[in-house]
Amino acid sequence: MSTVTEQTTTAGDTGLDGTPRRPEDLVKLFDACFALSHQTRLVSGDGEPIYLAARATRPAQVVFANGYFASALHEIAHWLVAGKKRRTQDDFGYWYLPDGRTQAQQAAFEQVEVKPQALEWILAASCGFRFRFSADNLSGEAHDMGPFQLAVWQRVMHLRKTGLAARTRRFSAACAAYYGVVDPLDARHYPKPNAEM
Fold first, then answer.
1. How far apart are the C-alpha atoms of 40 and 64, rounded to whole Å?
2. Which residues pair with 55 in a beta bridge?
3. For the chain, domain boundaries
4. What is the DSSP code (8-state) at residue 82?
5. pLDDT tens across 99-137, in order?
6. Are the beta carbons of 49 and 63 closer than 8 angstroms?
7. Predicted pLDDT of residue 94
8. Full-model pTM
């Protein structure tokens, strides 16, 4: 299990404007949005990311990997997808198979990753940060990510039309204000994936 540290580190991530994107800024923004209202903190861990449900002695923790900005966005997206009941369980009560999945296991993994990766893309746009699709299966069987990428894009297009849930809208707006992004839901942030991606 990951050891949780309160102090985050900078992983050298850069925004689309060439300026640094520091995970500690996301920690501050997340805390401002959710530390009191949802008793949840964003913290940097020194290993694998994990969600730790609240305990009597501490608030819930969204733990991201090794101070990486992109990892923080991804883990926040999982937290935003999770409903109230799921947020009472460590890792939201979901299964997780590590890197090295078969094609069938990868297909099941991608099915549950569409919503969080769509929100991650929106949060990345809100931060003026590049988004990369993640199969999270580097040593697994070869797999065509095209259908998954298209499903994530379609989910983003759906959210652009129907609107964001309250927590997502709140955090997206906080990030956009901090990073000076005028309209994070503008279509130009979301090019349709193609076979070359």
1. 13
2. 58
3. 4-93, 103-189
4. S
5. 666 777 767 777 888 999 999 999 999 999 999 988 664
6. yes
7. 80
8. 0.88
